[in-house]
Every structure is written in C-alpha cells, then in structure tokens.
Amino acid sequence: MDKPIYTITSHRDERVFIHAMPGHFISSSSHLNYYIGTSDIKHNHNVSVDAAMLMAQYYVERNIHVDSVLCLYETQALGAYLAHELARPNMLNPNPDSTVYVLGPEYDASGNIIFRDNLKKLISGKDVVILISCITSGKTVERAMESVSYYGGRVAGVTSIFSAINQVNGVEVNTIFNKDDVPGYEAYPANDCPHCRAGERVDAIANGYGYSLL
Fold first, then answer.
1. With helix as H, strand as E and coil as C, how does the chain read?
2. What is the per-residue pLDDT across 101-135, written as a single tens digit (0 to 9) for each?
C-alpha cells in the first residue's frame, strides 16, 4: 500500500501529533476512509507526557475526581502519565488524593472486560476514567462502561487521542483530536460503504492496536 501519510499537530500543543493515512480500512464496527495513527502518543515518552497534560486539563478545570484510569488498546503508559498529572497538586485542587490507579483490561471468551479479584477494588466504588486511543462508533467504550458499572464503579469520564463522536452514552468525550482535525474523515456502516459500492479494494484491517495490510 503506497499511501500518503499526513502529520496533524494539536492546536493546543504542537509537540503532540497524530498521523492520518487515507484509504479503505475496515474496523470491527465500521469502514473508514482514514487510518488514524496514534503510536507516537502511546509509545513515545516525550509526546505521551505532553498529551497526558492536555488530557488532564479537562478534569482539573472541571474539578472532576478520578480514582482509576482504565486503559484500552495499549494506552497504559499514557494512562500512567495521565494519572500522574491528575494526582499532582494544582491551583484548583492543592491537596488532591495522591493515589490514582492505572489498569488495563482482560477479556473473557465473549469479549467482555473482566477484572480479577485482586483488581476489583480498583473499580468498585471508584470514579473511573476510560482511556482509549481512537473512538469511531463508541461501541468499544460502551462495553467498557458496562463493565465498570457491573463491577460497581462510576464512569467519571471518557478520554481519547482521537474521536469521531462527541459523546458516548451521554458522557462527553475529552479528546485531543476530532473529525475537524482530519478534513474529510468519515466512518461508514459496513453495509453502506461508498468505497465498497465503487468496487475499491480494502487496504487494511484496523483496530486500536494498529493495522494489518491485506
């Protein structure tokens, strides 16, 4: 696949960036005309730290209490930096609770997020932020919300690197990048994809971990 790759920087911090590659991509719930690359924010220490600071502003400015960060699709490092920012004293909250937990999901055979007995205490009775790299339809976040609720937690917020939607189940998405940052970005239902109707081949299968060429 020989496609151009565009670098898009955040208008709030030019050191934070994603990549956008046009094409015909399939995710678990949609067909996409762009693949959004978030690897630098997830895996580059310097970029990840700066991105976490942007994400934390949302909760600090709204005085939203956070106990735990549930990290989806390899966002644990980013989640750790986010937790660090949320636990730091600031002008609005000079004496925060110094403990913010960070954990990743485990999935059962049906794809549901489960928590072992030693981790349930990090969810039950806690205010939980769900952190994810990209949100397209919101279905993955919805399942994470259901799991947090099932284990007795409260969803304090949803945070993403890129999101094509503004809210999930009535919860506003705190995101660094959105559709306005990627002009022309579209997600289509699998049964109503203009690329498929035009007979265009699929370039790759994509999910929160990356993409695999076909």
1. CCCCCEEEECCCCCCCEEEEEEEEEECCCCEEEEEEECHHHHHCHHHHHHHHHHHHHHHHHCCCCCCEEEECCCCHHHHHHHHHHHHCCCCCCCCCCCCCEEECCEECCCCCEECCHHHHCCCCCCEEEEEEEEECCCHHHHHHHHHHHHCCCEEEEEEEEEECCCEECCEEEEEEEEHHHCCCCCEECCCCCHHHHCCCCCCEEEECCEEEEC
2. 999 999 999 889 999 999 999 999 999 999 999 99
